[in-house]
Design goal:
EC 3.4.-.-; protease; Zincin-like; 224 residues; 6 helices; alpha/beta
Length: 224
Amino acid sequence: MIPPIEVVRHPRARQMRLSVDNATGAIRLTLPPRAPVGPALRWAEGQGEWIARALANRAPPQPFEPGATILYQGEEVGLDWDSGFPRTPLLDDGKIIAGGPREGYERRIERWLRRVALDILSAETADYAARSGVSVSKVAVGDPKGRWGSCASSGVIRYSWRLILAPPEVRRATVAHEVAHRTHMNHGPAFHALVRTLYGRDPAPQRAWLRANAMRLHSFGRIS
């Protein structure tokens, strides 16, 4: 039996998209603003085999706890705790080490990852914006479940902080994608041509990496 399917309309969606939330197992059908719900829902309900596979392939939670291994800029690194170290985490010899009390260790690791993500994504966004001759009013990071980045008409670009876990070339492909939206607020041929120009090559392999590893990236820092 197929679990309930949540229907969500997104103002920038151009086609329907079926996804499974790695954290909760929720099944979401995203539709363009005016797409009819009935036919789309019937199509989604017919994807039982795909839904079952996606639910079975959900990555187990990987809390930010001492002794765990996570991805950081595409490389596997260990997490360590040493009460004699400063509270602020640091990367040392393939490990991210944080001191201070054991209580709150997980929060300190995530805050550090978010801060590093914001710093790097802000710098890369500024670089691509300068190349493209556009302005970006603000760069922010959050933890959206279904998107790696978004660009508003106001010039605000938001990213998933989890991009700091992905390889740098994957992260930069996402930045090029969002900055290109400052010129083309659509996904037409001119938009994709600009993304390739900014990124320097076809970003399809990097986008495919994100799709293939999305559940794993969203498993890091989860407790249950």
